[in-house]
Amino acid sequence: MPEKIIPRSQDYSRWYTDVVQQTELADYAPVRGCMVIRPYGYALWENIQQALDQRIKQTGAVNAYFPLFIPQSYIQREAEHVKGFSPELAVVTHGGGKELEEPLIVRPTSETIINAMFAKWVQSYRDLPLMINQWCNVVRWEMRTRLFLRTTEFLWQEGHTAHTTAEEAQEEMLRMLEVYHDFAENEAAVPVLPGRKSEKEKFAGAVASYSIEAMMGDKRALQAATSHNLGQNFARPFGIQYLDQNNELQYVWQTSWGLTTRFIGAIVMVHGDDQGLILPPRLAPIQVVVVPIWRGEEQRQQVMAAVERVRQTLGDRLRLEVDGREEYTPGWKFNHWEMKGVPLRVEIGPRDVEQGQVMLARRDRPGRKGKTSVPMDELAPRVPALLEDIQANLLARARDFLERNTAQPTSYEQFKAIVADGFAQAWWCGDGNCEAQIQEETQATARCIPLDQPEGSGPCIHCGQPAKEVAIFARAY
Description:
By secondary structure, this protein is an alpha+beta fold. It contains 14 helices and 25 strands.
């Protein structure tokens, strides 16, 4: 029997770790800062991959794979890039028992190795746009780690594109930001705020960075995905040029964008409760679990015949699991699958068989409020519809939580109180020194400058200087 999960209100950080480990999403690896993604967690990642990969391909990007090892000289070609990543690099100096002529970097991100190949592949305007995505692992030597949220090695997808104009690159960058926005809300039921990162928070080597920001259950922010306009910052040092229609050499304009296994942590923290996981039906590894209830052989045969009918009705349409284990009681199974976050439980006992029905229990509404009996003949339409209702309810509930805990301060004193326990949406001058002082005084950072901006202007919440944009400030993971 799993250990009891500590309540969120008692220790949110411990609650998160308890949930991740006891639901068998992941476990700690022997190497510090690394994790083992267990089958249940990897099945969730596969569903994320499938939903996102389909959207990525609809933009025109295609999948490829690039090496794990990058020559050190490649990393050093773009000054901002190497400065930003140097503290996190893992460096290989020996191979095959011999010292390497040039050290190799275990990829922290692939801009440099991919752009070295783009320089070979791009010759003419006819080769553009070039739009590549890869699903892979990366390594960043993090000092403070937490399962899924920040680990030394993690999985992600990273997209890299090259275009003929700056306008086309900017359009592609915003298109991918909307892809992430759509995925987060419609697949994961995680409401997000899309916007531009501050100069301080942008990706090392980018002209501009954009992100989707989500509010976790403890009211802290999590950067859930990013999309970057790289301008020509990598095209020039890597010599990515093409002959335009006038037969003149031009440098390409580029983007890069990515979403990582950190998003699993977002799903845990946005939807989970004191009983464990609550998974959105569209991504859940198991959407429906069937728990048979019987006493004695005669009841067992009757109940299992009804279970088989449920399997035949729903098994080809949904990700369904039958828990026929006889060594555990029905009550133990109920608690087990609730902890694992399965969206819908089907209970079938002798009385249900007699009445030609089943009992359905929703994970998003624990207790009697989430239970309803449904005639066996109505399962085919009712269960998918119920799963869609659960999906919609999770998004609505999370969006309401985000809105209730986002406020618009009119003074800096109000601002400090708000960011201690939520999001502050405030006018900001955009000055880096002002941003640094806010962080030093409140531990809050500028999460993003939302795409959706109010009209007019106002005084900066910190320094009082004229401000033309509103920013979201919060303490973050």
